[in-house]
Every structure is written in C-alpha cells, then in structure tokens.
Design a protein that fits this description.
The chain is α/β, with parallel strands linked by helices and 368 residues long. Helices cover 43% and strands 19% of the residues.
Length: 368
C-alpha cells in the first residue's frame, strides 16, 4: 500500500451535523493516508453492489484491513429499482448478523444508490453510526456523496424516505471513473453542468470549452470539474444543511426530473438523464416567467445534448407529470415550487402558474 499522492486535492465541508474532508485524486482507495484517523471500529462493513464489488471491493477491503479494521462486505443488487425498503433491510440484516454495534463503521462503495442507502442505514442503525462515502461514479462524486442527504425511494416519489446524516469523509478516487460506461458517465456530467447555471457562470463557460476533454476523461479536466463541483456544493450545504432555503437550488431540474423517473419507473432513465432533461424544462420555465433571456434554453440544451444526454422528455401525459410533481419535497400545501434561474449563475425557488408549467411540459415532450 502506498502513501497518499502529493497532488491530492481537499475540499472541506463544514455543517452543524459534522465537519469532514472530501479527498480528490488518483489511486486514493489503496493509499494508507486515505483511511488514517478513522475509528478502528469493532466492525467495518463495506456496502457495495454486484457491479462494483469485483472491481474495487477487495482493494478497499485490503486497505482497511491494513489500517487495522475488521472488515466485512455486503453486495447489494445494482440499480435504482432496488433503492427501497427491501434492499435496505439487507444492510440491517448483515450488520446484525455480523454483530456490529454502535461503534461500527459503514463504507459506501459505489454510486448514488449505494451511497444514499448506506448513509440512510448509518443514520438509522442503533440510532446513528459513522459512515464513509467512496463514490465510484461521476454523479456521486460531484453531487450525491456530499452533503449528508440519504434516502430510499417510494413508489409515489423519489427519495421520500430518508434522513440528513453527514459522512466522516468522502473519497473521490478519479481512477474509478475509468470503468464507468459512457451512459453512466454522461449522467454524471448532467449534475456537473448543473452547478454553472445556479451558482457559477464562469464554471459553465469552462465546461463548454472543456467538454471534449471531459468526455475523453482527461485527468486534469476531471479533477477540476469534481473539485469545483464539490466546492460549490460544500459552500451551499455549509450555509443550509437541512434544505430550509438556499440548498434547494441544488435541485435545479430535479422537480421535472424526478417526475420523469417515477413516471417511467425507477431505472428506466438514469437519474442524471432525467435531471439533464429536467434542467432544460426548468430553464424554459425560467424564460417563460421572464427571469432569463430566451437564449438560455438552447444554450443549456446544446451543452447537455453534446454531453450525450436526452433533452426532450418522455411522452407521459401532462396530468401525470403534474400529479408526480405535486409530491415533490419542495411542494407546499399542494403548490409545486420550482428551482428557477434568476440570472447568470443565480437561482431561486418559487411557484409558477399551472398554465405556464403545462405549456413548458408540452414543448418538451409531454402528451395531452
């Protein structure tokens, strides 16, 4: 096992629920210093899935054992369709079967589904134990692993059952991105692109200029994209850990996107695909409300399309979209609230007239 690379980048997250580092670099999962400082628990359980385990499971296990941990590993079924109570119970069954107590440590090794479920299990098991995020997808590295939002899905809505529970640290090993299928990689680019319109117009321009390098998985480009995304999210989460205000802007495109995921059935579209399409809809809504110029919409659609993402929604009935959006977590008293763009690199949350929302939906593929 090697010492940690000298070029590792660190982003610090500071919230009332916990302060922790995000480590960004190459070869981190096998570096001794990556795991230094963690409590040597009575039981360290790696939670992963059947796709990721053969790639990185034993490497992480060996690194943790070398750091003095007693390691056990659980492989979950892969995919958004398994982000539910039944799969969550598998984690609890494993922990109880291994005799894990309240000093146990969970390690989430995988993408957003594994990270969300492991974090939720950590929040619940014996009323709360420590966990570490080791995201292996671009989407998880730039978004879901940071900030402590954990959840499972309900048939009526995505991420409706969950808790805020901050990890002890986040380990973004850029080498794991090399094994991502192109579709999964593109889905991660959607969440990366998101940060530009809502918080950093200069970053949006950088992505436009460097998209070819990102698609080629250039190391320097990826390191910058992951770091800047994490910096933006850490800043927002540090100001609003429990999404009482500012943090809601991170859900740009998600109200529309979650409706797409639930309407089609979880797993039919990847989360990043649905969010990318949802961002186009949300930008169009922003323009329809007179908040941003009309050319904001084709600019964003062009970038997302070049990244390999769908920019037109599925032909679900308009009424079905609206029904699903009414159970969005930002809704209040049945009124749908949308994250909208309010200017270059600025976003806010507000309601919108139902007639305008329906026109936007029809322009972007909804039926009826």
């Amino acid at each position: 096992m090697s010492a940690i690379a000298t070029d590792v980048q660190r982003v610090q997250v500071a919230t009332p629920g916990g302060h922790y580092p995000i480590l960004i670099g190459n070869g981190l999962i096998e570096c001794a210093e990556t795991w230094a400082g963690l409590t040597r628990s009575t039981c360290t359980a790696i939670v992963t899935n059947r796709t990721v385990a053969p790639l990185y499971g034993e490497r992480v296990s060996a690194a943790l054992r070398a750091a003095g941990h007693r390691v056990t590993m659980l492989e979950l079924p892969d995919g958004e369709a398994h982000k539910d109570w039944t799969t969550l119970q598998l984690i609890f069954d494993h922990l109880l079967g291994q005799g894990c107590d309240r000093k146990a440590l969970l390690v989430a090794l995988g993408g957003g589904v594994v990270g969300d479920m492991t974090g939720f299990a950590a929040a619940c098991y014996m009323r709360g134990i420590d966990f570490v995020q080791v995201p292996t997808t671009l989407l998880a590295q730039v978004d879901s692993s940071v900030g402590g939002k954990t959840a499972i899905n309900h048939p009526l809505g995505k991420n409706m059952i969950g808790a805020f529970h901050q990890p002890r640290r986040v380990v973004c090993d850029l080498d794991t991105l090399a094994t991502l299928p192109p579709r999964e990689f593109a889905a991660g680019l959607a969440e990366t692109i998101k940060y530009g319109p809502i918080a950093d117009e200069a970053f949006l321009g950088w992505i436009e200029r460097n998209l070819s390098a990102l698609l080629a998985r250039d190391g320097a480009a990826l390191a910058h994209a992951v770091r800047r995304s994490c910096e933006i999210k850490a800043d927002v989460v540090g100001q609003d850990e429990r999404e009482s205000g500012l943090r809601a802007i991170l859900n740009f495109g998600h109200t529309f996107g979650h409706a797409i995921e639930a309407g089609l059935g979880y797993g039919e579209w990847l989360h990043g695909e649905a969010v990318g399409c949802g961002m186009v809809m949300a930008a169009d809504l922003s323009a329809a409300l007179g908040l941003v110029p009309a050319d904001t919409v084709p600019r964003l659609a062009r970038l997302l399309g070049q990244a390999g993402l769908p920019v037109r929604g599925p032909a679900l009935p308009v009424d079905r979209y609206v029904e699903l959006m009414r159970v969005d977590k930002k809704a209040e008293a049945g009124e749908i609230r949308f994250v909208v763009l309010e200017g270059p690199g600025r976003a806010g949350v507000r309601p919108a007239p139902d007639a305008i929302v329906r026109k936007v939906l029809r322009r972007h593929g909804a039926a009826g």
